[in-house]
Here is the input.
Amino acid sequence: PGRIDDSLPFYPLRIAVLTVSDTRTSETDTSGGMLVDRLTEAGHELAARAIVPDDVEAIRGQVQEWVADDGVDLILATGGTGFSPRDVTPEAVKPLFRREMDGFSI
Here is the structure.
């Protein structure tokens, strides 16, 4: 149980990586970079990558853009989930959910 069944076909996903931060740049975004490295090493495709500030409308707008894009199968987000008043990623994306998976989503 919990193991990958190697007899099943692998279907690579087109994954977008979103970093939410007021301070990170493409050069200093280590968590976003790690996600990109891991997904490509696993055989998936980087569909898009963006860094947006800790702002509900900026986060929601980027997520909605990718949700509407047929070239994006999955969105991974990092950042903006701490306890300071500026960390608003969960509040920004939760209204967009159709269904939640406890322990898997934000």
